[in-house]
Design brief:
Blueprint (H helix, E strand, L loop, with lengths): L6 E2 L6 E2 L3 E3 L5 E3 L17 H9 L3 H10 L5 H21 L21 H36 L7 H12 L8 H5 L5 H23 L4 H36 L1
Length: 253
């Protein structure tokens, strides 16, 4: 009966039986990979700060460690934070946060000028739009991954693939945090900053997808590009539909 290998070497991607052998409470020996004769996962002994730095620097070994050799149980919390942050950035850009103040209107104010619920409702609509677009992005990645594993790579399907895809999409989208400086300090540079963040996020997603689905680079690029196309299309469609519903609800008030 063949052994079931649960972990992966962060250097070559080969499967290993374990990451370390524990001899006592203070003594452990890291496992060597039989394929490349290197330490299977050196990040077992590393602090989380160093791992995060390597993730920012697009280190493949760090992505393999997080996605393949750890549980990463709280990924859903990070997903919620990223969705809220992306929604806030979209809302701030649409509202023109940090733009110069308009001249004071000396006319008598009207009641709707003091209604703050409109902007709150707009933010909730953007959050819903961002969430549904994110689900479309994950769905495309999952569908194309199952298609590749079943028909092109002849790999068996496992139910854990969906969770792994969600973890990958979440971890590789953390570049959204780079939008905070523009939001906090200077919105005039947001458009240029956004192009850089988009390029960096695409690179993170390509690298992370390559880690969980060993495939040609052209296939990885096709998957990420297709996922972004559907995400943008669904976001545009949902924006039109949700805005029309929002305007109708405001007119009825």
């Amino acid at each position: 009966m063949s052994k079931e290998y649960k972990y992966y070497c962060t250097n070559c991607g080969g499967k290993v039986e374990g990451l370390f052998k524990k001899y006592s409470e203070t003594v452990l020996k890291l496992t060597e990979c039989k394929c490349c004769n290197e330490i299977a996962d050196k990040y077992v002994e590393y602090d989380i700060v160093i791992i995060i730095i390597d993730l920012i620097l697009l280190n493949t070994k760090a992505y393999r460690h997080i996605l393949l050799n750890t549980d990463f149980k709280h990924f859903w919390k990070l997903s919620v934070v990223l969705i809220l942050l992306e929604s806030y950035c979209i809302w701030a850009l649409s509202c023109g946060v940090n733009t110069p103040c308009k001249p004071i209107n000396k006319t008598e104010p009207k009641l709707h000028d003091f209604d703050m619920n409109t902007e709150d409702l707009k933010f909730y609509v953007i959050c819903l739009n961002t969430t549904l677009s994110y689900l479309c992005f994950v769905a495309v990645m999952y569908f194309l991954t199952v298609l590749y594993n079943k028909y092109l790579a002849s790999r068996p399907y496992t139910p854990s693939q969906l969770a792994l895809i969600v973890k990958t999409a979440t971890l590789s989208s953390t570049g959204i945090f780079l939008q905070l400086p523009s939001i906090i300090w200077d919105m005039s540079l947001f458009s240029y900053h956004l192009h850089f963040i988009t390029l960096y996020t695409w690179l993170c997603q390509l690298l992370a997808y390559k880690v969980i689905c060993p495939s040609p680079k052209i296939w990885c690029l096709l998957v990420i590009f297709s996922a972004h196309i559907l995400k943008s299309a669904s976001s545009l469609y949902l924006t039109i539909q949700l805005n029309s519903i929002l305007h109708e609800s405001l007119e009825l008030q």
